[in-house]
Amino acid sequence: QVQLVESGGGSVQAGGSLRLSCAASGYIDGTYYMGWFRQAPGKEREGVAAVKGDGDARYADSVKGRFTISKGDYKNILYLQMSSLKPEDTAMYYCAAQGWSPLGANSYSYWGQGTQVTVSS
User: Fold this and answer.
1) Exposed, middle or buried, 25 (CB in 10 Å: 0-12/13-18/19+)?
2) Radius of gyration (Cα) for the chain, nearest Å?
3) Contact (Cβ atoms closer than 8 angstroms) between residue 69 and residue 80
4) Per residue in 79-115, pLDDT tens?
5) What is the mean pLDDT of the segment spanning 5-17?
6) Which of 65, 50, 62 is nearest to 95 (CA)?
7) CA-CA distance, 51 to 100, in Å (whole number)?
8) Is residue 43 classed exposed, middle or buried when 0-12, 13-18 and 19+ CB atoms within 10 A define those classes?
9) Across the strands, what pairs with 59?
10) Burial of 40 (0-12, 13-18, 19+ CB in 10 A)
11) CA torsion angle 59 83 90 102 (round to 10)
């Protein structure tokens, strides 16, 4: 069984940066994607970024050039470095594991509880 715990969320002004972390316990299969998703109030959950064990990384168009997904030295840590944050990035951010479609939420088997990111203008 895989468990995911996110951390690093908070409040920041527009233009600022945050780094989210996701600590995973249990077996993580590197042939599948690990990813970050977000959900704002009243909106559907959307894929932000995802990466596989071979380094194949995918990003939503809305965050390309601003966000970077990476894995720690040990494959059970996942990061999301967020820069040039905008108010529209405000959402609950979730870590997910074992997905076959990088930004497709329905393809993921495991989810964390989420960490809130709030960007003020």
Assistant:
1) exposed
2) 13
3) yes
4) 999 999 999 999 999 999 999 999 999 999 999 999 9
5) 98
6) 50
7) 11
8) exposed
9) 49
10) middle
11) 20
Look at strands 33-39 and 57-59 and give their pairing: unpaired
Cα separation of 82 and 15, whole Å?
10
Compare 103 and 26 and report the one with higher pLDDT: 103
What is the rounded average pLDDT of the residues 22-42?
Answer: 93
Backbone φ/ψ region at 15: left (φ over 0), alpha (ψ -120 to 50), beta = left
Residue 72 pLDDT: 85
Q: What is the pLDDT, as a whole number, of residue 105?
A: 97
14 with 87: CB under 8 angstroms?
Answer: yes
Which pLDDT tens digit goes with each residue over 44-82?
999 999 999 888 999 999 999 999 999 987 668 999 999
Q: Backbone phi, then psi, for 56, in 5-degree steps?
A: -65, 115
User: Is there a contact between 52 and 33 (Cβ–Cβ < 8 Å)?
Assistant: yes
In the chain, how many H helices and how many E strands? 0, 11
